[in-house]
Amino acid sequence: MRYAVLSDIHGNLEALSAVLADAAEHVDDVLCLGDVVGYGADPGPCVDLVGARARAVVAGNHEHAVVGRLDLSWFNRYARAAAEWTRERLDGDCASYLGALPLTAVVGDATLVHASPRQPQEWDYLVTEEDGLAAFAAFDTRLCFVGHSHVPAAWSLGSSGPDYARGEVSVTLDAGRRYIVNVGSVGQPRDRDPRAAYAVWDVDAKRVTVRRVAYDVATARAKIEAAGLPRFLADRLAAGA
Ligand SMILES: [Fe+2]
User: Which residue range forms the structural domain that includes residue 25?
Assistant: First the structure.
């Protein structure tokens, strides 16, 4: 069994379509870690695609923001403008679907959560080595997939000590070790690589690999500008930052 693990799509239909096309050649099923909406110009089509393709989806902070479960003062001005724009454009069915998403899910031996398995509703970022290592006590499965920071990374813990890697991540799952993998962002990468990121979890081969997929950034940027969303949100797609 092979899963594509997607996070932080952020209404970027061009990136999501490219990732799903790439994933079709490498996986059997799709899992999603939230932030399907927010920032990009196509929230509705992204929710429809994820809802149709994914076996499990958990909520991100942007889902909670657009359905009114997260105070927008928590957001910076760009995220707030995007959340308000998105909220006005989602139909009732879409909003109810997003509002009903769970904060965590378990698939096989993996926990899915948007931000951190420790108090998922606090939306803490796992960035440093210490952030990740401190989160292992908060889940019971062997693996935990996270997103939220938009930067791929992997933490592991076992008898031979802790391990941590940022950036391009390919992890072989050794017996007796536990792992947290940040799969990066489909629709708004922030590691200075503008290509979409997602992870392939090959259960039988015991491997998790972050893949990068080039997509039509120019169209995604143009749609954001045409929608009247902040120009910064268009420009950062080209920079991958
Ligand atoms: Fe996000």
Answer: 2-239
CA of 175 to the centre of ligand 1 (A): 31
Calculate how far, in angstroms, residue 127's C-alpha sits from the geometric centre of ligand 1: 13
**What is the number of domains present in the chain?**
1
Q: How much is the pLDDT for 74?
A: 85
Q: What is the CATH number of the domain that holds 200?
A: 3.60.21.10
62 CA → ligand 1 middle, Å: 7
CA nearest to 104, candidates 68, 73, 135, 150: 135
Residue pLDDT, tens place only, 58-84: 999 999 999 999 999 989 999 999 999
| Alpha-carbon gap, residue 34 to 37, rounded angstroms | 8
Q: What is the pLDDT of residue 168?
A: 78
Output the CA 161–ligand 1 centroid distance in Å. Answer: 30
- For residue range 142-178, list pLDDT tens digits in order: 999 999 999 999 999 999 999 999 987 899 999 999 9
Could you tell me the two tokens for 114? Answer: 């948007």
Running DSSP on this structure, what letter comes out for residue 124? -
pTM for the full predicted model: 0.97
Q: Dihedrals φ, ψ of 2, to 5°?
A: -130, 130
